Structures are given as C-alpha cells and as structure tokens.
Amino acid sequence: MAATLKVLLVAGARPNFMKISPIYRVGLKYAEADCRIVHTGQHYDYEMSQAFFEDLDLPAPDFFLNAGSGSHAVQTARIMTAFEEVCLAARPDLVMVVGDVNSTLACSIVAKKLLIKVAHVEAGLRSFDLSMPEEINRMVTDSISDYFFVTEESGARNLLREGRPPETVHFVGNVMIDNLFYQLHKLAGRDGRTFSTYKLKQGQKDYVFLTLHRPSNVDAKESFQEIADALNYVAAERPVFFPVHPRSSKMLAEHNVKLSDNIYLLPPLGFQESLFLWKDAALVMTDSGGLQEETTALGVPCITIRENTERPITIEMGTNILGGTRRETILEAYRRSLDRKGQRFAVPPKWDGRAAERIWKILMGSEEKNHVTGIRPIREVHR
Ligand code: UD1
User: Fold this and answer.
1) Which residues of 108-119 are buried (b: 16+ CB within 10 A; e: fewer)?
2) Mean pLDDT of the chain
C-alpha cells in the first residue's frame, strides 16, 4: 500500500476559507492522503470565520491556534509559536498555505524551518507594491516554498523571473473559482427568502455591491473620505449595498466619514449571501483580491479601488477596471464601466472549477502536466 501523505492545510483569514474548501473536499477522495485543517484564528468573529466554515461545507478545524488580532509582528509571532507546536506534534509531510495573509507567511516559515515541504496555492501574484503587507507575505512565502500552484500566467512569469525552478511551478487554475462554481450550484437550490437581505434586493434592480477594507483605503481619514466622495456620487444614481468589514466599521466611526443614505450599510455577510447579492449587481466596486477574480469568472462588471492589482488577467481578459483611489479616477472608471455595458468578456484559462483536482494530482504523483511553457512576456498593470 502507498504511504500516506500527511498534509496540514492552513487558513486564517476570511479569503483563505474559500480557497481551502475545494482543496479539502477533493483531498477527501484520496485514501492515501490525510489532510487536516489548521485555523490560525487570525479572523475570529462569527461573521468573519465560523459563518464561512458553515457556508463553505468545511468541517470544524482539526487545530485552532486562537491567534487573534494584533500588530503584524504580534499576530505573525503568535501564529508561528502556536503552529510550531502543531507541526511538532502532527509531523506532516507537507504544509499547504493559500493566498497572502499573515497566516500564509507565518506557517510557511515555521514549516520550512522544520524541514517540512511547503506548497503555496495562489503563488506568484505580484502587485509590485511593497506598501501592501500582502505583497511582502507573497514574496517571502514564494521565496521558500517547494510547490507553486499558480492561478494565472503572470504568476508563473513572476516566479520564473525570480529564479524558481520551472518544474516546481504548476499552472493549475484558480481554487477561488472552484469554490465559486460549487457555491453557485448550491445557491441555485436555495430559497432566497432565507437571506436577511432578500427584501433589500427585491426592491432594487440596478444596484452596486461594494466592499472596502484595505488599510491603505480606510485607515487614513483623507483616503477614506476621498473614496467616500466618489461613492456618494455613485449612490446618487443607484443604491449601493455595502457589507462592512470590521476594520472599515471601526474607521467609519473613528473618522466620522459621511456616507449617503443610499449606501446601505450591512454587517459582514456569509459567502452565500454575499454571492446572492453581487452576482446580480449592475457593478461591483471593491478593493478585495478575490472579488476581482470572481466577478471576472461570472462576467459581472468590477471596479477595483486600488492603484494596482496583482491579478492582471482580470483586466486583460475580464471585467475588471482599475479605478485608483482618488474621487476623479474612481468616477472615470465608473463612467467607463457603464459605457462597456453589453460587451462580452472572456474567462481566463483553467478557471473551470478543476484547480483543486489538478493540485492533488500533482501532489499524489498521478500528474496531469501543467507546464509553464509558452508564457507571454511580462506586462505589469498600473493605472
Ligand atoms: C486581513 C488580511 C487581508 C485580507 C483581509 C480580509 C493580512 C495582512 N491581511 O486583513 O489580506 O484581505 O484579512 O478580511 O493578513 N477584526 C475583527 N474581527 C475579526 C477579525 C478582525 O473585529 O474576526 C478587527 C481587528 O480588531 C482588526 C481589524 O478587524 O483591528 C483588522 O483585522 P486584521 O486581521 O488585522 O486584518 P484585515 O484588515 O482583516
């Protein structure tokens, strides 16, 4: 009988939960794989954490590290200390990390120093903006990982340019989209009236769905107010549904940012309810990474409220427009987005709901080859 591959699959913050869900589900199909979930506790509120585990059909984690909030150093150190104990006790063959949050960085460093192999899912993405904590997390994780699972060609290009061996770089597609398709299917069988936002949606046919939480956008009063000015203009034309992230909630109160009454402030929503709203929106405005990809996969117009993106394929092929963070640039993107109504966009290669399958095939040695040859030249996307 083949030896069992012991895997610790790490998640810590909201966007990680969507990514581990399909990986975990497909992993269950392999009798020779023993895949355990580690939740670092970076996010801990019911709406930011447990609600997602329930929505995403994830079981309770096998290990919960209870790291909680803190400065980057404090949070990262707490996760590292707790994860080291788990690794020493569980002795995994492989630690699998996803995305670019502090948990990704912390757990990859701990594993590597214990000589445990590290797989990074969503490797190689680069915003080339070192003022983003996520960019540092991506670069450090990618400098020590053993397997690189890439969502788009730019990721492979970046990794090869940084000297990673080509045989370790696998273009597998996007687990975020695996999860999206799975959840869409589930949503189709669900009665919309079970959502608290059902009535709100019924009353409005032409609305904007907004998410905003990046420290660079909300932590300073001037930046938040500048973006709010643009949003208030948009809200004069159509209602805006805004599930508010805990960071933004704090900052709204602290800075006393004025938002139009036509911007509906909602609590953080579970995955299904959020999808229920944004899939039918006239436009999504966001500074999230995942929504840039998910809107492209479903052909929903999207404006990214940032100066750059580490996901250039969503602009080159998909519905995403980089809106910047100034009132005027956001509104220019808004008008451009309305002008593109009816235009058809493409779905990026391998965003077909099978990324997790490709990952496990590679890990278990029943490899479907996912060569990174034929990659086009680098084009950074900046405004
Ligand atoms: C983190 C990730 C970011 C990701 C985002 C998604 C890093 C560096 N950042 O940012 O990449 O896009 O998650 O949500 O890893 N808080 C709560 N309840 C919670 C969690 C946090 O109230 O369950 C509060 C904390 O007090 C904290 C603030 O929200 O002050 C921000 O949380 P934190 O985890 O530090 O960073 P995020 O902004 O969520």
Assistant:
1) bbbbbeeebbbb
2) 95
